[in-house]
Design brief:
The structure holds 2 protein chains of 2 kinds. Chain A is mainly alpha-helical. Helices cover 35% and strands 0% of the residues of chain A. Chain A has 2 helices and no strands. The mean pLDDT of chain A is 80. In chain B, 2% of the residues lie in helices and 62% in strands. In chain B, strand 18 and strand 19 (381-392) form a beta hairpin. The chains are: A mainly alpha, B mainly beta. At the A-B interface, helix 1 and helix 2 of A face helix 1, strand 1, strand 2, strand 3 and strand 7 of B.
Chain lengths: 69, 393
């Protein structure tokens, strides 16, 4: 069961298009980032969950985002 | 302490997300659980500075003033007024260290023991963009409490896979060495039961690989694989278990394995449905060798009402299985090597709700207000109020 969701992203990423830098206005909005781009907010949300639950991880390396920088 | 878990991992790879922007953010959080179990007041500050187009420095500082009570098994007949323990501010005059001797089964209680703590934490992350615009980052953080301090070093490398920067892969690694001050009163981890303190270490490694892909002009997706290995003193010195040794009842410190290996994966997707409406969805799977596996599903919605005001809402569902050495039954443990009654290691699920808004009072100044509510099926309810202000210069 857990391996099914590893296959889905491969299909998902396969549908991607080439987007030029001048077409990334929407992607550059703060709403496109987790927690609206507020890193301190993301941090305290993570602290709340880690203090109440037994698992962690997956919220570290943020990746390159939309390449809008 | 009840909250101690959070300090172990909250700084892991914290600063790997880099924004090319100069800003200062200040934030204040008030957190409160039901039954007065935990209250936290936490101010924090973050500074992000660009030095030309090649360097970005991000630094943060936070403080957590925590008070409340941890639910543990204790001996109701114990007289905590002797001054033998520094943790005797318990409402019922009990101590987390009232253990080791045989106790009467009638005197065992499961209740709250008060605690207070102050954590100070800070860190920085320096990112260098090389000629190909790949990013190399180094980070360091430090968190300190009176009985727990944990420095961390991290490194990450982000590589763009195409010229249009539509896809990237990032690898990150972090290492922590924690120093845990353990009171040795009847703690089996110590060589002596004198009550003196001793310092134990934890050695924690965490890795993560993230692939990010722009799907089209309105959506982006991310796939991560992560893993960690914790080693050393992983027990919580403040938690007790009840053992039945051939009919004799003892309250003893919990004992967890001194190793933990975990891996997991997360997929996330964000899409702008219209100019004003954006949706996020993510799923995370986690599995470790303590027999805990968990599933996390989260959705976020952003609605931009006008140029200044944006509303945000989020729902998160979490469920986990129990650790193999966990039991909340006081007559369960006998001579097992590993035993814990920390309810966070038990089977549980929770739902978290967040609502709030972000208001731009000018092109330089943002204000945000968030209300967060956590409802766990083991009778834990928590509410957090978060207020922040971001100044862009």
């Amino acid at each position: 069961m857990k391996y099914i969701f590893l296959v889905l992203p491969i299909l998902f990423f396969g549908c991607s298009q080439n987007v030029s830098s001048w077409q990334k206005e929407t992607l550059s909005k703060s709403q496109m980032q987790e927690s609206g781009g507020h890193t301190l907010l993301k941090s305290v949300k993570g602290q709340i969950f880690i203090s109440k639950e037994a698992s962690r991880g997956g919220n570290g390396a943020g990746g390159g985002g939309c390449g809008c920088k | 302490m009840q909250i101690k878990h959070s300090f172990l991992a909250a700084t892991f790879l914290l600063s790997t997300y880099v924004q090319a922007q100069d800003y200062v953010t200040t934030q204040f959080m008030f957190y409160n659980e039901n039954d007065e179990t935990t209250r936290i007041i936490s101010p924090s500050m973050e500074v992000n500075l660009d030095f030309g187009s090649d360097y970005t420095l991000n630094a943060y500082f936070s403080s957590d003033s925590t008070s409340g009570a941890s639910p543990i098994f204790y001996d109701n007949s114990y007289d905590g007024s002797s001054g033998a323990s520094p943790y005797q501010q318990g409402k019922s005059n009990v101590s987390a260290f009232a253990r080791g001797d045989e106790v009467s089964a009638d005197e065992i209680r499961y209740g709250l023991v008060d605690y207070h703590d102050l954590r100070l934490a800070g860190g920085f992350n320096l990112t260098k963009r090389v000629e190909s615009r790949d990013e190399v980052s180094f980070g360091f953080s430090y968190s300190n409490e009176f009985d727990f301090r944990i420095p961390e070093a991290s490194f990450s490398y982000l590589h763009w896979l195409d010229e249009s920067k539509n896809s990237s892969i990032e690898g990150a690694f972090a290492y922590q060495k924690a120093y845990v001050l353990v009171q040795c009163s009847e703690n089996s981890a110590c060589d002596t039961n004198s009550g003196a303190s001793d310092i134990f270490n934890q050695y924690n490694y965490e890795v993560q690989i993230t692939y990010t892909r722009v799907i089209d002009k309105y959506s982006i997706a991310k796939l991560s694989f992560f893993g960690f290995r914790d080693g050393g003193y992983l027990s919580n010195q403040y938690f007790n278990v009840v053992r039945n040794r051939s009919g004799k009842i003892f309250i003893e410190n919990e004992v967890r394995p001194n190793k933990r290996k975990a891996y997991g994966t997360k997929v996330a997707y964000a899409r702008a449905i219209t100019d004003s409406l954006t949706l996020h969805g993510s799923y995370r799977y986690y599995d470790d060798d303590w027999d805990i596996n968990s599933h996390t599903i989260e959705g976020e919605v952003y609605y931009q009402y006008n140029d200044k005001l944006t509303f945000e809402g989020a729902v998160r569902y979490y469920t986990q299985s129990s650790a193999r050495f966990y039991s909340d039954k006081r007559d369960y443990f006998t001579t097992q090597k590993y035993a814990s009654s920390d309810r966070r290691l038990g089977e549980l699920s929770d739902v978290n709700y967040l609502i709030g808004f972000d208001y731009k009072s000018s092109s330089e100044l943002n204000h945000y207000f968030m209300l967060n509510y956590l409802n766990q099926d083991n009778d834990v309810n928590a509410i957090a109020v978060i207020v922040g202000q971001k100044y862009i210069f």
